[in-house]
UniProtKB/TrEMBL annotation:
UniProt source species: Enterococcus viikkiensis
Key word Flavoprotein present: yes
Keywords tagged on the record: FAD, Flavoprotein
Family classification: Belongs to the class-I pyridine nucleotide-disulfide oxidoreductase family.
Cofactor names: FAD
Domain FAD/NAD(P)-binding: 4-315
Protein name: NAD(P)/FAD-dependent oxidoreductase
Length: 450
């Protein structure tokens, strides 16, 4: 039986961000991986999506500047060429990551890992043990249990499409669906979105989510709100989609984007005595499971924090400090910025507008009309807007931005909230000019005055 200091199940952001520094500090580290090294984000998720999204954002910017003096030819997305570029960039990353980790002394164990007991993991009939074990097995796309579910695709398959279908039906209107629908629409597909709830992007600011829906509708996207998927049927070379309200239409491709579920099955968690629920594995404030020597990191955890790549990496870095004895304190999560990479983008951080409206004695919401500020006028962003949430002391507690530059702007506001900076302190920071960050203190002062 081979023994490690730390053994990880999974090799994504929640694992390698701890495995690498631990190995560099002389720990004997192993990684069990049954899929592709480096996990979903690197290979099948955000990195690939971000690459495909780049030309989509550029098209939107060309459209803005076309109205104010940019003379262009008929710019369009060549999906086949773009997909070839995606493969050229993304496909080597897994091998590069594996080589880097192995060069640092990390041993890879390929195959499916399953607990035999709380101290032993079996992979391909071989047993392994470790002083500490970290479960970082992540999540996978959920599938609706409806007739014809086998005919539907998921986000991983969409991000590998060799040709863009003429028409696509997206099931669900969360951020994954809305992002991929924006890409498909820009690439020329006829896009429909079915959503059981009455609105898109639950969890994001409702006003901005509704503005985004109107924008997408003006670009030809059809929404069916308040309707659940009833069935999918093959009709010749197409598929017939039927909702529980009787809506029926044909399409070339159906994508189930109704959420993600934790990979807790077939790990032998019950054999090891590890507690879990439908949200994932239960942990304490040290990311420790119900078994003393077993921890969890990343999207596999049942938690209130967003299941995002930066959160997974933060948890991995915390475990590094914990295992090296640098800290014995509970994990202290910072504020987490989130973004929907649609067009326009919606990005937010800290206290949400919904929460602020429910607690008017504690927070004030101020809306900034960015469209009428000089920098957004220069970019001809006619719908740009931002909401700032201030606490009773006048400090920024939350923000949400609706614009093509929303993620970049929200990053600057995230630092302000996390550091608790006042306007006076912020004015001590001289950002490059002209940039959007340069005006952050102005927007905060404007919000407090209004």
């Amino acid at each position: 039986m081979e023994k490690f200091d730390v053994l990880f199940i999974g090799s994504g952001q929640a694992a390698w961000n701890a495995a690498l520094p631990l190995a560099m500090q002389g720990k004997k580290v192993g990684i069990i991986e049954e899929g592709t090294v480096a996990g979903v984000c690197t290979n099948f998720g955000c990195d690939a999506k971000g690459l495909l999204d780049g030309p989509v954002k550029l098209l939107a910017e060309i459209e803005q500047f076309d109205e104010i003096g940019l003379e262009t030819t008929d710019a369009r997305i060549n999906w086949e060429h773009l997909m070839a570029h995606k493969h050229a960039v993304i496909d080597p990353l897994s091998g590069q990551m594996q080589a880097m980790l192995e060069h640092s002394g990390i041993e890879f164990i390929f195959g499916h890992g399953e607990f035999r007991d709380s101290k032993t993991i079996v992979v391909e009939k071989k047993e392994y043990t470790a002083t500490k074990i970290v479960i970082a097995s992540g999540q996978r796309p959920a599938r609706l249990n409806v007739p014809g579910k086998e005919l539907m695709h998921d986000s991983t398959e969409f991000l590998d499409l060799p040709q863009m279908p003429e028409s696509i039906a997206f099931i669900g209107a969360g951020y994954v669906s809305m992002e991929l629908a924006s890409i498909a629409n820009a690439a020329g597909a006829d896009v429909s979105i079915i959503e059981f709830a009455p609105r898109a992007l639950n969890g994001f600011d409702a006003e901005y989510a509704n503005k985004l829906v109107e924008k997408m509708q003006s670009s030809g996207v059809t929404f069916y709100f308040g309707e659940g998927l009833s069935k999918v049927e093959k009709t010749g070379r197409q598929y017939t989609v039927t909702t529980n309200r009787g809506t029926e239409f044909t399409t070339d491709y159906v994508l189930d984007a109704t959420g993600r579920i934790p990979n807790v099955e077939n790990l032998g968690l019950d054999k090891a005595g590890i507690d879990y629920d439908r949200g994932g594995i239960s942990v304490n404030d040290h990311l420790q499971t119900s078994v003393e020597n077993i921890y969890a990191s990343g999207d596999i955890i049942s938690k209130k924090q967003p299941k995002l790549t930066p959160v997974a990496a933060f948890e991995a870095r915390y475990l590094t400090q914990l295992f090296l004895g640098v800290t014995d304190e509970a994990i202290n999560y910072p504020v987490v910025a989130t973004a929907a990479f649609t067009l326009p983008r919606i990005a937010q951080v800290g206290v949400t507008t919904d929460y602020a409206m429910e607690h008017p004695a504690e927070y004030q919401i101020k809306t900034i009309d960015l469209a009428n500020s000089w920098d957004y006028k220069a970019m001809n962003e006619k719908d740009a807007s931002m909401k700032l949430i201030f606490d009773k002391a006048g400090k920024l507690a939350g923000a949400v931005n609706y614009s093509n530059e929303a993620p970049e702007v929200i990053n600057g506001l995230t630092t302000i909230i996390e550091q608790g900076l006042t306007i006076q302190e912020l004015q001590r920071t001289l950002f490059a000019f002209p940039t959007l960050d340069y005006n952050l203190s102005f927007y905060l002062a404007q919000g407090l005055r209004s």
